[in-house]
Write a structure and sequence with these properties.
148 residues; five-stranded mixed beta barrel; mainly beta; OB fold (Dihydrolipoamide Acetyltransferase, E2P)
Length: 148
């Protein structure tokens, strides 16, 4: 194989409201923990058990704007992206590391409850979709031979 793959797909619930930051260059970043769970049956007891894993998700620019407007703690989302490991120096000068999911695409799976559609319409008033153009140049002739 000539290449490599770094792809993550998660479906889970936000653990808290997105933290929104704006950089000096104007770029927006949203970060939040996302919980994914799996259920299994304990072989010894027969009880159903649930394991929850937490993932740190980071969204940039337009996706961060969507996160700021539409997703909150508990919202179920689909996230597609890649894993990134980064490092930084803490206050004591120690090098710290974290691994994050940098989202390339998100889909909100929960109902958007509590969102006022008048202040956050799904599209702006200026960019309403135009109705389809009427079909033209269609022949009403019935003497056309069927192509089959």
């Amino acid at each position: 194989m000539n290449g490599s793959v770094n792809k993550v797909i998660l479906i889970g619930n936000l653990g808290k409201d997105p933290e929104i930051r704006r950089l000096e260059n104007g770029a927006m970043i949203a970060s939040f923990p996302l919980a994914t769970s799996e259920v299994y049956t304990d072989k010894n007891t027969g009880d159903k058990k649930e394991i929850t894993d937490w993932h740190d998700v980071v969204l940039w620019r337009g996706l961060a704007e969507i996160a700021e407007k539409y997703i909150r703690k508990g919202t179920k989302i689909y996230v597609e992206g890649k894993l990134k490991k980064r490092s930084w120096q803490d206050k004591e000068g120690n090098t710290r590391y974290t691994t994050e999911v940098v989202g390339d695409d998100i889909t909100i799976l929960s109902r958007l409850e509590g969102i006022d559609r008048t202040t956050h319409p799904p599209y702006s008033q200026d960019s309403r979709p135009t109705p389809p153009a009427p079909l033209t140049d269609l022949s009403d002739s019935t003497d056309d031979a069927a192509p089959f």
